[in-house]
Fold these 2 entries.
Entry 1:
Amino acid sequence: MLILVEELALFYIYILNFLVVYIIVRSISFFLVLIPLHINNSYAQDCEYKLSIQVLDLHDGLPLVNATVEINELDKLGTTDFDGNVVFKNLCTNSYTLNITHEEYESLSLLVNVKKDTYKQIRLEHHLNELEEIMVISNNRNNSRTLFENKISKEVLEDYNSRSLGEVLKTVTGISSLNSGNYLSKPVINGLHSSRVILINNGVRLEDQEWGIEHAPSIDINSIDKISIIKGASALKYAGDAVGGVIIAESSREKLLDTLYGNATTNLQSNGRGGGISTNFTKTNSNGWYYRLQGTLKRMGDFETPNYVMTNTGFSEHNLSLKAGLNRIDHGFDIYYSLFSNYLGILRSSHAHTAIDIINAIENEVPHIIEDFSYDINIPRQKISHNLLKLRGFKNFDFGKLSMRYDFQSNDRKEYDIRRGDRTKPALDLNLQTHSLAFDLESKFQNNSNLKAGILARYQKNFPDPATGVKRIIPDYKKYDFSLYSVYDINLSENWFLEAALRYDFSHIDAYKYYRTSLWEARNYDELFPEFVVEDLGLNTLTNPKFDFHNISSNLGARYSISESENIFINYSMSSRKPNPSELFSEGLHHSSARIEIGDLSFNSEVGHNFSITYDSSNEKSSLTVNAFANIVDDFIYMIPIDLMPTIAGAFPYWEYKQEDAKLFGFDLKYDSQYFTNFFVGHQFSIIKGYERANDKPLINMPPVNLKNQISYNFPELNNLNISLESEYVFKQNEYPNNNFEVFIPTEQTYQLLDTSTPPNAYHLLNFASSIGFKAENGGNYKINLRVENLFNKLYKNYLNRLRYFTHEMGRNILLSVSYNY
Amino acid sequence: MKIFKYALLAIPFLYFSCNDDDDIPEPINEEEVITTMTVTLSASDGSATVVLQTQDLDGDGPNEPIITVSGPLSSATSYSGSIEWLNEMEDPAEVVTEEILEEADEHQVFFSASDGLPLQFVYTAPFDSMGNPVGINFVLAPQNAGDTGSGNLTITLVHEPTKPNDGLDTAGGSIDIQTSFPVTIE
């Protein structure tokens, strides 16, 4: 391993050297070019020339409207017309630096010699983000990607602005969510979730204790304009441990114009009897300075199933984000701050203690405590706040774009449980602080290839407050990360595009943990890890576990364009994920799941090999995407029940983290088509299977097969009224591990089955959606959305809801939102 | 050469980050744990007191609770019982009984005897503020004087049961303590 690390280090030194030489050579040649031009300058006299510029899209050659063209030396500014043209008059004989910018395209700078009336055609490349979006929308261009990527646009985000991130992501084929109740929802990509799915918020890897199933991502969907889900080579820019995938949430780029724009949204919903308001506005200047403010408030009361109120499921949330900076063509910086905070009620009746409590809950089917509707958020509840501060700067050099980023995150999680005595203090109080510093380089080469490379250092500290009076679930730890990556892509020919990436992650964990001495010995840690012991305190043993992980991740992908509208993407990626603190250190009763959970200090990193192939075809009338994948995961870390453990409170299911080889494979299909002029039909289907490799035992919590169909009709003449009906059929999960136990009921002297494994039945939901837009007098526009979810008020349970033993899902929900864009 | 300038800038930061301010976290005072339940049964006719005890000093650790019964019950007498709960993880041990008494509204002890153990139970004072039973004190007696037998006597402490209730099955709440004691009546 060490040799490999050394070789990698050498490899990077080599790359750095190469860059240095490259920079020197390019700088010299740059000056050589400049000198004669400046000589020219001194002879300039005639000032009657006309410079006509036409700006076109690099790929399809279509003219670009509203591109800004600036002549640096003269401070002259022009905007292209409908044919992409702009004309500057009365120019002298000289060479001028032109800066061409367009909000959806990569900016470009170039030198133009003017000695006579000059016409120059300039082609701009789409922003990467826009490319991805276009891909999904169906208009296939020559994209620089070797893996089909999914994308959620601003429009979809607007339609779902009262939801959580997990709910929005579910609209993408192949993504489901793992819920704890109604609002607390974690994304699941192709069957994988938690530490295996990395979230990037505005370029910053979210560090919010994502390992816990009942920990939802701390992102306000109103603060972002675009979400993409990436799994290919580009994912390695962000993380090497994304065995499931990377979700990138970002706000849109600021325009290089003197303008003010924004949005205000209000929404109301019948289920939960609440709503939210969100607003943002951005002020930009043509000189590049801008700022953006955004805020969201949400408040909901108890949610309701068709038959009863889910007591204590309301929540309140308030979020804020600020961004300001300078965005010039060749340099810029920004500062970004966001605060996400919520206060979330947990179903009152989900507080189970022992196996018998859960048996009773399952038998009753409905919660034990059902009270009248209320807005109160009582115990049990969570209080989360997440602060994120990011500073970023970039400068374009001759060798590429170099950017530097520093970010700080502080995640504060308090969980309040039903406690004895007058204990109103939290039962869990964690503070996770993370500092990161990163340098990224993006270079374009002459031969149609690009190189991205970067280096990152991160420091993280977890502090569980001992004042809770409850044994720490996650111990005090410090973590030091160091990463290097490079991503290279090349356009080999008209049809072939290749991408390769390599990443190295080093991680050092230094933890302090009090183990129960009995457990320390029962697991043989006293013989395996005697060096970790600091002090034996009798009941507990203070230990100082230290670990180093070296992980390599890589990726190789190709795209073959059969024609303009048909592409095949083939990708292999290897991701390595170190065990998270929960998998290493869990020890003891986890109250929110009423089971004893035991981690393992001897775990090594889990390595996923993902093979995927996607066929994508689209034309004006239809689009089809078919994706198949196989994910072979070595040393997959997961939890299985081992036994029942007797305690003074009775028997608890005893779950242990295990490390076994696993395999997952699946298939997603999406087909949209248009009939007549305004009638659309869409279909989405996805199936996934996961097993342990050794014995073909199914993996737990695999999303059931689901099928979504949608019909919609658009009335362009009626203010673009759009009406659609969505059907969602979720099959019963027929493959699941049988983790059931016979539990002895002492009061009845009988055994009863603790059936936490059997999935609930299939269900079919119908949703209605409509939207209409109006132009406001001042140039803005209104959009009104009306949605009815679970139209027929169906009573059902969801396999991927952790609280399904205690409650059904939400009944009918009518949502109304009005948004105003200016 | 900016790249190196930036890299140099990073060094103090890295140093700062890696600068260990090693502080050993303080041990946690595990407040809410109940490690020990002692049921003292005093005979009304003066025969020997019977003590039932369950003790699990490592809490949710792997060691099983140790259950002890000091001797057989007499079929000729009734017993007045009282329960004491302790948290022996704290030093000195915390008497949890007081806390439970303070929250009598939210707690109830349930008693049950298996077939072959002809016992009856009656709740005695203290009652909660609504006059509902708590079960810290109770009277235990053979169903008929002279009944003998053996089986399990199960004592269950429930947090937040519905009160009043018809027994453990319908009381809801969550179980704090549940222990079966092997008991004989002679």
Entry 2:
Amino acid sequence: MSLWADKYRPNSLQKVDYHLDQAQHLTNLVNQGDFPHLLFYGPNGAGKKTRILALLRQLYGPGVERLRTEHMNFMTPSNKKFEIMTVASNYHIEVNASDAGMYDRIVVMELIKTVAQTHQLDSTKQRHFKVILLTEVDRLTKEAQQALRRTMEKYMATCRIILCANSIGQVIPAIRSRCLAVRVPAPTHEDICKILKTICKKEGLTLPDELALIISQNCERNLRRAILMLEASKVKQYPFDVKQSVVVPDWQLYIGDTAKQILSQQTPGKLLEVRSMLYELIVHGIPTNVIFKFLLKELVKNCDVSLKHDIVEIASFYEHSLLKGNKTMFHLEAFVAKFMLLYSKFMEESLNGIF
Amino acid sequence: MSPEKKAWIKPSFEEIPPTIKLLKQSSKKRPHTALTQSENKNSDWCNIYTPQSVSKLAVHNGKVKEVKHWFESLNSNLLNKSKILLVTGPTGCAKATAVKLIAKQCGFICLEWITPMTTEPIYDQCTDSYCYQNVKDKFQDFIWGATRYRSLKCGVSNGQFLLIKDIPNIFLDKPDEFHDIMMRFNTISQFPIIFIINNEKIIRDLFSTEILEKLKVQQIKFNQITRKSVLTVLEQIVKSEQQKNKLLRIPNSTEMNAIYDETNGDLRASIINLSFTCMSVRNKISKKCSTTSTSSMDVNLDLFHSIGRVIYPKREVINSPLQFKFTHNPDNLVENFAMQPSTVLGFLQENYLTRFSSLSDICKGADAISAADVMLSSDFMFGVSIYDISLSSLSVAVRGLMLANEKPIKVFRPIVKPKHFQYTNDIQMYKDIKIWFDDVHESPKDILLDIIPFVNELGTDKQKNVAKELWRFKRK
């Protein structure tokens, strides 16, 4: 399917719609001819990937857009073979090393070695380096990140590495210091409204301001989701109606239901029910930190102001241990239990106050 | 002298040293005089008191009948009779003894396969060199020979059977080869084979249900010997031993019961422990020592048992309700888990919730588990081994849970496997997503979060169907 989100993706740094200063800086960086390793970070749907691809185009010309997918084979120390899918052009290669799970270290090392050991054929016309694009660096294991740091220094002559992550909290400091970190913040509501309108204009549709605002408020400042919502709304009903309901992702609704369950009753039995609901979300591949974030949002919405502070405090505590720990579910459950306790205590006290 | 010639010249033709002769005589005598023999103090009681007739077996009568029935069916002319018997059961429940005795009663002679420790080179005349025969070939030759040709000794008997207690290790890696040999055996053999195995994994690997059907294997499962029968056997041994040796101290019934508990009903181990208990007094090491249990074996707890002790903690109040200790020491519990600490932690997390009665207790328990998980995945190591870290983190969880659970709910609920392990296969899921949405250049995580929810409106029919099947949340 050719989605609007792909169709209207700006393909050069001159055409991006927001963070114009940053785009100018990136253009200058490329025009110099050389640049350090880069680390793009920012929330989902803020335009990290768009900027990276535009940067590559600026660097190598339209040749980067001729993409081919390749399957690369790797061998673990225990002689188990596994396969990783890569997307590559003549000038760059894109890999999500965390696809390999616990073997990501091998992918990082082998891949950079094979790519970096070959020089560009015609270095007079082209740049003298290639680009390796690693996505979701924050999901890499610590070992893989250590390996990345060593290979990064070693092959500086023949390749540049562009890293892409949601948050640099999970990236080890050694890598952070070797890269130029570029933060891509989420677009503002006004930015999103503006972009939605231009897309509609190009499609020959009319978009009422109210609907644009509703979409921008429901998309969590995620531009990709906003454009998808717009397209889904158009399929559902056109001409647009001001009071039209927008499609909200199912998993988000489900997290809302879970929050309602937590608020409805605070007993061990309910906690057990909530646990099975959380598992249901995990089965569907929703990352635990996303669940945590939306759950907290829903819960805090229904809390008294005096309670909010405490809730956010415990949430930050368990979110931290979730990142440090291994089994994310344990911490999520501990948070829910703690919330239930605080909430039920608060409700009791306020009831006593009334009578 | 070549080894070939060596084989022809029996050592018996050479001069026999007198000591060997004496030894041979005594060993010949032993089976007849075993019960009354008193001068032979060194041989262990297991050998001396091996039952000499079927009626003296401690095995349940029904099982004896089953085995006997199988032997009798061999002589019948049924077309569909099974030539292979698989005897399974825990260690020390007299499987081999029972089979041998019953066979003897039915008039069969036992040929036993013992896997050779080392293989000696064989002289090959054609090439004038030595070659080694591998265990697999030897095993095959042995089965071939033992099941087709009558042993010289079994002239008068009904026949012979082949007893295999230890299967060569090579077959554990290559079960196919084993099945191959067995299939060929099944078509041509004259005499039956009995396998005696107590390892569940080997049984599963080598004798899957299809194979059992294909080879027409009859399986007989032996159970643990009951406390009563073990105790009777032990008492009989003590009685007859006492006649020979007046100095022997008779262990009282609590000690006998303790022996049974320690060995988990393993008859062989019970007899060895019994001889040790009796001996320690005879040698007058110390009287006090003998009254405490010998406890030669670790307390053997299975996983469910130990988890039960954690999630239903028992307290013993010492003076006041604030001063108490746990009946089961948390440290011992932690050390006795025979599994990876992370797995145990998963089990605890899955099961603790339903045993807690109040929410505040749950909070403390969940905190302990959360802290344990953080410790377990910490990567700091200043001279501390990963093993130590994992043990201490498990200890945090166990102590935390036991302490937090002030009023455990004493209702039986089955202990369940942690769901967490089934649910963390993201990698496979991400791969699948990439295949379904091969026309979208996004990372699978983004596809999952942003594109799949809108697939109903925007996707192709195929993608819609896949999403309908797999990405539906179950709502009540």
